[in-house]
Amino acid sequence: MDKIHSLLLRQIKRYFGSTDPLPKECPDFINAVNNAYLQFDSDRSMLERSLELSSQELIHASSHMRAAYERIVNSSVDGIFAFDRDCRYTVWNPGMERITGVSEDKALGKGAFDIFSPFQETAESRFFSETLAGKTIVAEEKLYTISGTGKQGFFEGHFSPLRDESGDIMGGLAIIRDITERKRAEETIQHMAFYDTLTELPNRNMLYDRLLNAIRTDSGRGKPMALLLMDLDHFKEINDTMGHHRGDLLLKELGSRLKCVLFAPDTVARLGGDEFTVLLPRLAKLEDIHVVIQKIQDALKSPFMIEGQPVEVEASIGVALYPDHGENPDSLLQRADVAMYRAKETGSGYLIYDVKFDEHSPRRLALIGELRQAIEKDQLFLHYQPKINLKTKYVIGVEALVRWQHPKYGFVPPDEFILSAEQTGLIHPLARWVLKTAMRQSQAWRQTGLNLPVSVNLSARNLHDSQFPDHLAELLKITGGMPEQLELEITESAIMADPQRALEIITRLRTMGLRLALDDFGIGYSSLAYLKKLPVNTIKIDKSFVIDMAKDEDAAVIVLSTINLAHNLGLKVVAEGVETEKILDKLSTFGCDEAQGYYMSKPLPVDALTRWLKESPWRLK
Ligand code: C2E
Ligand code: CA
Ligand code: CA
Fold first, then answer.
1. Is 577 in the pocket of ligand 1 (CB under 6 A)?
2. Domain encompassing residue 311
3. For position 218, which CATH number holds?
4. For range 216-243, the mean pLDDT
5. pTM of the model
6. Beta pairing, strands 152-163 & 169-178
7. Ligand 1 pocket member 426 (CB < 6 A)
8. Same structural domain for residues 406 and 334?
9. What is the pLDDT of residues 570-618, one digit of tens each?
10. CATH number at residue 97
């Protein structure tokens, strides 16, 4: 507060030439702007901009003061207006002209609601009266409507009272910013992230979100909850014989039929392909599952008319129950999937999960059993995928990705054993092994003159382990690694599983000097508002959006909006999944900071990467 005060004072002295005595209006002016901006935003850039602003009192001041005032108000990027006790506009800057489309000469002297439509149902109508009653009001993301044109948008800002020399309220001052574009971008991203574009049904993320919510709010209440996973029988053949376009129409029609038979609080979602799920969060009794399944089967009975052609459709459904078959979204989905496959195999229409089904997956069991040994006996190894800076085109680091060459099953993709490792707790020794190996490798590269910081992926479980930061500190000591050479990649889902604990651990990691990146951004289910609070340095846009950019305009819009938003929040942006030069160029024009993907290089073993660094067009600085 004092700092702003003295900064403003200094600025005013500069504007008005003299130092002492200041015009008597100045202290009031300082206070008005001061209070205004303290409310508006406390960050530095705002603080600096606050120096450019002025207030009502100056109108009555000396002429050179007025000239200075006009310069200040007219050059502000924000909208500034003042009004008198009758709510008539007395100041209307070009910023307001830009926002409302109403010019200064039309606005001055008009009543508050001659320009803004009277916002009956919303809080805005109070802004003027409450300001005149002496309150300072902060407006966050408020809707405005312009009376004449009906133009709508969003603003944020704040209203504060203006007082005369004797301290009586003579009107109000508002400083507002049009945030319509930002809101729209946020909404687009939010919508794309949570809804399936084909069927307009909730997608996997939204389902995940609802599942988590249902688990959190319903746990302990004893009401059964069920997750149904449905997969069409022979959809591939339909697609192959009728074409993808008709296949899509069928899925769309199926989506609408499901929407018609299921209502809130149930959620119908499309996971992708011909896979749909139904979440029944509050069953009165278990038997109701059969009623719901009957409704679904009835909805599929009549043939689908696709471009005039009737198509018969059948489906298999697997059911998992909470908490009997799983206590988190991943395990419930996995169990419903197992039950669905069983239902398909046996042609039984639908089945509720049973442990017996899992015994039939010897590969999965064998993998779980052998993972511990693999970690201890160094059967795992790391591949490294380079990341490049899009401006300089230099390689600026690598991501470590774990690999398992199983003696019997051959190459096992990480997606397959990471989940098992999480479920069995083996994720802790696994993470330590990966970190140790990656840090040693980074050190080894340094010793040969290669500066290659390494990014390592963490699992949700690592972020919920309060000993993890200590283990990491110890590893840094043992390997002689430096925190700035290491970046940790975490996902939103990992954080959201237990936000408080995760946030505490993330904060500790940050204070240790480690950099953090939010991985798979865009497919997570946390809100953008939440991102503002996360102490991460970087976001990695999920490869699904980046890959789709080539053919899907919506995906390109998401990527661009995400880059802009992240930059607004002071975050660096990495795009992963860059598979073509065209996408790389597009990302450059979007202002993306870094890129990673098959176009530059697949993840490679150490030797191959070292060779690649020498031979490829991408080099180390
Ligand atoms: P991720 O962290 O999103 O890693 C990127 C994945 O995208 C890698 O798959 C990589 O090979 C792949 N990728 C890279 N560039 C491209 C591209 O241009 N196009 C396409 N289509 N894909 C690309 P990978 O190695 O199979 O890893 C899969 C996931 O397994 C990782 O996703 C990460 O979530 C997990 N994972 C891998 N290593 C570890 C680890 O050490 N610890 C933990 N907790 N998870 C790991
Ligand atoms: Ca990653
Ligand atoms: Ca990723």
1. yes
2. 195-358
3. 3.30.70.270
4. 82
5. 0.59
6. antiparallel
7. no
8. no
9. 899 999 999 999 999 999 999 999 999 999 999 999 999 999 999 999 9
10. 3.30.450.20
